[in-house]
Amino acid sequence: MKLFIKNMVCIRCKMVVQSELEKLGIRYSNLILGEVEILESFSQEQFEKLDVGLRAFGLELMIDKRAKLIEKIKNIIIEIIHYSEEELKINFSAYLSEHLNYDYTYLSNLFSEVHGTTIEHFIIHQKIERVKEMLVYNEFTLSEIAWKLHYSSVQHLSSQFRKVTGLTPSFFKKISIKRRTEINNM
Fold first, then answer.
1. Residue 121, class by beta-carbon neighbours within 10 Å (0-12 exposed, 13-18 middle, 19+ buried)?
2. Is-above-0.90 flag for pTM?
3. Per-residue b/e over 39-78, b at no fewer than 16 CB within 10 Å?
4. What kind of fold does domain 121-184 have according to CATH?
5. What whole-number distance in Å separates Cα of residue 36 and Cα of residue 4?
6. The sheet that has 60-62: what strands, in order across it?
7. CATH 3.30.70.100 domain locations along the chain
8. Which residues of the chain carry a pLDDT beneath 70?
């Protein structure tokens, strides 16, 4: 049986889920972002304890089919943008459709209705969050970041970054370095 978990979007989240499952003695396999395969049946009491334990960390078990689908969409996008080095050979809409076995129009309408924003805007915001992370850790140049995140050009990345944050990437990097320096001098 698969359990779907809302807000499970990072490695730490996976560690929390793993810890809560082990605490309750629930055997599992295939723990990935947003879902876990349970190997045996478990009681309603264990289910409720698991839900309470996960909620303490901002996670929650999902029962609603539409909510599960929205969470799958978000997790696929986050996985690709934040954790995958491979370039998609097809566009996001085709990838989501193919991966989830739903027409993209349905996925898009459902996402917009439930999440209050389009899938495209969610993708852009996730990419900008990844750009910020890369800028703060000073791992790559802006050109390398644009290439890694599959932007057509540095100008396109900069334009999108400014629309979302109100700052240029270079100014963002400058203030994040200043902020780190101030913290280190405390």
1. middle
2. no
3. eeebeeeeeebbbebbeebebbbbeeeeebbbbbbbbbbb
4. Arc Repressor Mutant, subunit A (1.10.10)
5. 7
6. 28-32, 35-38, 2-6, 60-62
7. 1-63
8. 88, 178-186
